[in-house]
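Figure S7 source data.
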Amino acid sequence: MLDKLNQLCEDALAELKSQDKQDKIDTQTALDEWYGRVIGRKGAVTLLLRRVGELPREERPAFGRRANEAKQALEAAYEARAQEIKAAELACSLREGAIDVTMPGRPLPMGRLHPSTQVLRNIYDIFAQMGFQVYHSPEVETDEYNFQWLNMPPHHPARDMWDTFYTTQEGIILRTHTSPGQIRAMREFCPEPIRLILPGMCYRYEQISARSEIQFNQVEGLAVGRHVTLTDLKGTMIEFTRRLYGAERVMRFRSSHFPFTEPSVEVDMDCILCQGEGCPVCKYTGWLEIAGAGMVHPVVLRNGGYDPDEYSGFAFGMGPERIAMQVYSITDIRQFWANDLRFLEQF
Ligand code: PHE
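Tokens for the predicted phenylalanine complex:
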């Protein structure tokens, strides 16, 4: 029986050390299986030890001693192998997970600013250089601000210039232009002089088409003070246009009509694509319309708190989407809110 024990022990240790590919014990699972088979509760060695009673009494102490040694040796061998396996697995995972720091990085998809926002920011920059601050006013407006205080009483035919979204609340509408901000700004700053731009979304009840959207941005400009003249308006518009589109731009001011300015003008510049020769972008006129403008009407000045005998001012309104369409030759205004990445990623 002692021989059998020695044999079992020897075989088990040999198995553990075996380098033979096929039955190499090189995973924790295989090692546990070995443990169970040899010194687990039903392992060969354990079972053999239980049979100690079958030996003649005088042989039992020697067998017992040998049995303990064997068990310890096997346990120790198990522990050692377990350590080796752990180290090998760690080395392997380090090798497989190794990072090549010289490899070029994967580009992260970067977001970008919407073309309207880009144009808006260009406009802010230029007017900031000329001393205009940005003033925000609400998109949901009252009829008074959007029309009445801008010199358009109820049922005034001039209101036909703006197709309006009315809300279910009497007198509350979506602003059709940024001009109501003129009144808000004047009432806030009066009697101080004013030099502001008022950007933001406007809404019109339009048939949506390549040329018209129901929402779009406008940038209003407003300057109020003593001795502000039409010349200041012209100079400001020319300077702005040349800073945005280039120093060689030629401007044209056509007389026009808005109820809240007097006199009123349409501001044109020569077409940036054909330099005034005539092309589809300018519809063969050679000119691009960039703003409506004029001297603030005395009634509007008074509604803002300024005495028109002492103060005067100019105002203008332009459309950043229109500007972007001109700069980038965009033919369909619906692209701006269509959320089509093929369009947006070009800017
Ligand atoms: N509010 C006008 C529009 O939307 C533009 C404008 C602004 C004209 C300021 C004159 C002065 O058409």
